[in-house]
Amino acid sequence: MASLDQPTALERFINGILPENPVYRQLLGMCPTLAVTNSMQAAMTMAGATAFVLISANTITSLIRNVLKPHLRILVFTLTIATFVTIADRFLAAYMYEMSKQLGPYVPLIIVNCVIVGRCEVCGSRQPVHVAFSDGVGQSIGFALALASIASVRELLGSGTWFGLPVLPASWPAWVIMLLPPGAFLTLGALMGVVNWYQARRAATAK
Amino acid sequence: MHDEFRTLEATAESAGGAAPMPALRVAPSPHIADPSLTTARMMIDVLIGLAPVIAMSVWVFRWYAVLQIVIATLSCLAAEALATSMRRRALTLGDFSAAVTGVILGLSLPWSAPWYVGVIAGFIAIGLGKAVFGGLGYNVFNPAMVGRAFVMIAFPGALGAAAYQAQGVALHVVTEATPLTLAKQSAIATDWWPLFLGTVNGSLGETSALACLLGGLWLCLRRTASWEIPASIVGTVAVLAGIGQLVRPDSPMTLAHHLLGGALLFGAFFIATDPVTSPLTFRGKVVFGIGIGVLVWLIRTFSGYPEGVMFAVLVMNAVTPLLNRWVYPDPLGGPAPAPKS
Q1: Residue A30 has pLDDT above 60, yes or no
Q2: A2: pLDDT confidence band, cut at 50, 70 and 90?
């Protein structure tokens, strides 16, 4: 099925990390990116749950890609994703109850995370299983890196800690705004500017 | 404009070769422009207008005022230099706009703010309030108020109502809460004479109604600030507070407290009149001022905050592009005819 101009498994993997980073380059999955990045623990739990759902759903979609009906494909994607989200949600509630309560509705909301539907549509439904799997892993790493970068800035400035461990001296004045929604928007904007600047510089030196 | 003419002439002359052709200037009006009307002149006017306010705040708050103003100004200048050099533009410190932002920012802080508040507020004001939009003239929000709003939400302990009050400091005024907090939380009315003169607690530049009036009138007379904006702000608050006083005569927030207390006059004359972030036309300026007045009165009367000038200005800044479009004036010779289909 895979035509010759489709990216290979390795290209898919590398693209997911920075060249097609879901947050910084595709601007998808903004809801968890903004909502749960006020601490590293919450952000990494969210990244883990999203990675599980993304890799599983992408692989399953790739396995059934030959029986997909074009007009029903989004419905099938959503049902596949919802199955894995339910598994992830119940797992968190069973084994990480406090974190599950802290993340609240954002774990069930992974169902409508555009990163996952987007990968199923772009890669899972068109390419063989090994490509879809490595695509899912690459995109998951890219998503986790993006969440980690935003959460690091917000937790360091907002609480002076990293993964809950005190990093900055106790006299550090906590920037409460960084833990609030405005801090998420400001950090995302600033970091996206840095990523764009880096990409532009790389493109300029490549010429 | 003059520079453009000069380049036009120069190209015409060089194209003409041996026999220089007369340069024919075609340009829309105005043809007579005041060459002294520069950004730097306006900004120096504002600094002169701020002089009585600075003097009064230094008299009331002593070294605390000097410290805050110096920290905020230096921070704004450093941020401006950093932002322009990052964008590889010519250094724009000479137009004094960053200095004005810094002084207004410093004057809007409480005397007790820790040093890092002024530094962070300065960098946010210039970086987030101005540079990311493209520099002076392109910013949507008043830079000084962006900086202040950021630190106010970031450090509620250092800028909240409780931060103004302290015992055991060599300043007499800071043993009491600010007049608006007193009126709101303890229902204590401050006498109007100290309120007018400025010997009360508050943010550094806001305490003295007299100094704000003096500096503000200078700005309006120099036409650096448009008189419509402060007039409509103060007028709106006066009407609303007057009605409020008639409805509830026992309230400690009388008409005089609304007009003389808090940052109303400082905001009306020095913050809301920023020509970049306020509307261009007469009608726009009046609507802008009325909007600020209504918001200030609403926030002071019904919200948890004792004062609302900063938020009122920021909200109306956001509406300004809409106002400019709404009150678009008819061009000379009547409105443009509708295109024939």
Answers
A1: yes
A2: very low
A178 interaction partners in chain B (CB closer than 8 Å): 154
CA B142, B146, B148 angle in degrees (round to 5)?
Answer: 120
Out of B114, B153, B156, the one facing A182 most closely (by C-beta) is: B153
The beta-carbon neighbor of B116 closest among A173, A178, A182 is A173
Instruction: Give me the torsion for CA of B211, B216, B219, B221, rounded to 10°.
Output: -110
Three-state DSSP state, B273 = coil
Q: What's the pLDDT score for residue A173?
A: 87
Contact across the interface for A175 and B158, Cβ inside 8 Å: no
Q: What is the largest CA-CA distance in chain B?
A: 86
| Domains of chain B in sequence order | 39-324 (1.10.3430)
ipTM computed for the complex: 0.82
Q: Which residues pair with A165 in a beta bridge?
A: A162
Query: What's the whole-model pTM score?
Result: 0.84
- Asked if B153 and A180 come within 8 Å (Cβ–Cβ), the reply is yes
Q: Is the dihedral of CA A189, A192, A198, A201 positive or negative?
A: negative
Q: How many CB pairs under 8 A join A and B?
A: 18
How much is the pLDDT for A49? Answer: 94
The Cα of B154 is separated from the nearest Cα of chain A by a number of Å equal to 4
Residue ranges in chain B modelled with pLDDT below 50: 1-16
pLDDT of A174 reads 86
Query: Residue B178: its pLDDT value, please?
Result: 86
Nearest to B208 by CA among B199, B216, B217: B199
pLDDT in tens, B35-60: 667 888 889 999 999 999 999 999 98
Q: Do B153 and A178 touch (CB under 8 A)?
A: no
Confidence band (pLDDT; 50, 70, 90) for A1? very low
Whether A176 and chain B come into contact, CB under 8 Å, resolves to yes
Mention every residue, 6+ apart, whose C-beta is less than 8 A from residue B150. Answer: A177, B120, B121, B124, B128
d(CA B253, CA A56): 63
DSSP A38-100: TSHHHHHHHHHHHHHHHHHHHHHHHHTTTT--GGGHHHHHHHHHHHHHHHHHHHHHHH-HHHH
Chain B residues inside the 8 Å CB shell of A192: none
What is the identity of the amino acid at B171? L
- Nearest residue in chain B measured CA to CA from A176: B154
- Parse chain A into domains and list their residue ranges: 9-151
What's the CA gap between B140 and B118, in Å, rounded?
A: 22
What pLDDT shows up at residue B140? Answer: 93
Burial of A48 (0-12, 13-18, 19+ CB in 10 A): middle
Q: B134 CB near a chain A CB, below 8 Å?
A: no
Say whether residue A137 is in contact with chain B using an 8 A CB cutoff: no
Enumerate the residues of chain A whose CB falls inside 8 A of the CB of residue B116: 173
pLDDT value, residue B10 = 47
